[in-house]
Write a structure and sequence with these properties.
Layout (H helix, E strand, L loop, with lengths): L24 H26 L4 H29 L4 H19 L1 H7 L3 H24 L4 H21 L7 H19 L9 H34 L3 H21 L5 H6 L4 H28 L8 H23 L10 H13 L9 H28 L1
């Protein structure tokens, strides 16, 4: 049952065992604001690699900017799982947060290309005005969770003050200050919930993360389609283009299949003490999924030979994020899912094999690498289906 609607509903913690808890239409609308941000970042990342800026010079800003996107989504998602009243005031504060995310999205190109986080910081400031107001409201209206909510409000305010102050630091302090403030942000929930865990809903959280995975996979499809369109315009339909297009679709579909192969909600309900590991561990996993589309876009564009980057770099841009996804799915499921989730003997050797494929060049072309990665992903899917069939008969 959803929370009652009205002009004002007292903000009490939601029932963590509530049945049929699903994402609300407002949460789905909120997620759409991240489509813009992820698309901006994936495009900038693909352009940076394709222009020959170097892997490290492209990956570092990609991870920094993706952290800003992911953490903004995390802030809203875990709060809404615990305190979604869906009344007028809650919706208005959510609107403020959505406005902040859109400003953040507008600042993605400057942050990636020039390490200029001014617009992203302004977006965060707007977003956190709405979020801190929500925590203050929870502290006022929910006595049982008052201390935790107050800690959240204070912690977020302090960390946001740090991000604003960072704008005036010397350029050489940019990376160290980012790392320090990111760690400060990550520590806020750890500190706040020492006095009591918020009543987040395990099935709701599992669904919310799954929906974000689907958003990222959709962005990967979009990025790869952009590459196919550009390649068709430049070189027409070629066998290499067909192979990469089909293999890319198999990779994305396979990642979806493997991620959703095991139910997570029940595991989170039984192992709430692993929630921080599972939630924070999704940062590199989700970043890798976002990077897959950029890699596939580069692979398609490499067919025409118009990129200022070697084939090895293009192959790495496809294979490495896929390998990371396979390894992290195993790592994150292991303490949560009974039986360990998709088994290590299936995922870890497959991840190692995917990591090794880029080094098959020149014996393997970029097209061959993408096809080989797709073949490994398909084998993992087949192994997962076979294992589930055996378990169902047991």
């Amino acid at each position: 049952m959803s929370a009652p609607r009205g002009i004002h509903v007292r903000m009490l913690g939601r029932d963590a065992t509530e049945s049929n808890r699903a994402s609300s239409p407002l949460e789905l609308l909120f997620d759409l604001t991240f489509v813009v941000a992820v698309a901006q970042l994936a495009g900038a990342y693909a352009h940076g690699l394709g222009a020959g800026h170097g892997v490290l010079a492209s990956v570092v800003p990609f991870m920094f900017v993706f952290f800003a996107i992911w953490w903004a989504w995390m802030n809203f998602t875990w709060f809404s799982s615990a305190y979604d009243t869906d009344d007028v005031l809650y919706r208005l504060f959510t609107l403020v947060q959505m406005a902040g995310v859109l400003v953040l999205a507008a600042g993605v190109p400057a942050a990636f290309d020039e390490s200029d986080f001014l617009v992203i910081t302004i977006g965060y400031l707007i977003m956190r005005i709405g979020l801190i107001a929500q925590w203050v409201r929870a502290a006022i209206e929910h006595p049982d969770g008052r201390t935790t909510a107050t800690r959240y409000a204070i912690g977020l305010a302090v960390s946001q003050a740090g991000w604003v102050a960072r704008l005036w630091l010397p350029e050489e302090w940019a990376i160290p200050s980012f790392v320090v403030l990111a760690l400060l942000d990550l520590s806020v929930p750890l500190w706040a919930e020492r006095t009591g865990m918020t009543p987040w809903h395990p099935h709701h959280i599992a669904e919310r993360y799954g929906l974000f995975v689907i958003i990222l996979l959709g962005e990967s499809v979009f990025a790869a389609t952009n590459g196919v369109s550009a390649s068709l315009a430049a070189s027409g339909l070629t066998p290499e283009l067909v192979v990469i297009a089909v293999a890319g679709l198999l990779i994305l579909f396979g990642v979806w299949w493997i991620y959703f192969a095991e139910p997570i909600g029940e595991g989170l309900a039984r192992h709430r003490n692993w929630s921080f590991f599972w939630g924070y561990g999704h940062y590199p996993l989700l970043a890798a999924i976002a990077a897959i589309g950029a890699g596939l876009e580069l692979a398609v564009l490499a067919i025409g030979g118009h990129l200022a980057v070697t084939d090895e770099v293009v192959a790495i841009a496809v294979a490495v994020p896929v390998g990371i996804v396979l390894a992290l799915i195993w790592l994150l499921q292991r303490p949560i899912v009974d039986g360990g989730g998709v088994p290590a003997w299936l995922l870890l050797p497959s991840a190692a094999l995917v990591f090794a494929t880029p080094f098959g060049i020149p014996w393997l072309t970029v097209t061959g690498v993408v096809a080989a990665v797709a073949a490994v992903v398909v084998l993992v899917v087949v192994g997962t289906v076979a294992r589930q069939s055996v378990r169902a008969k047991a």
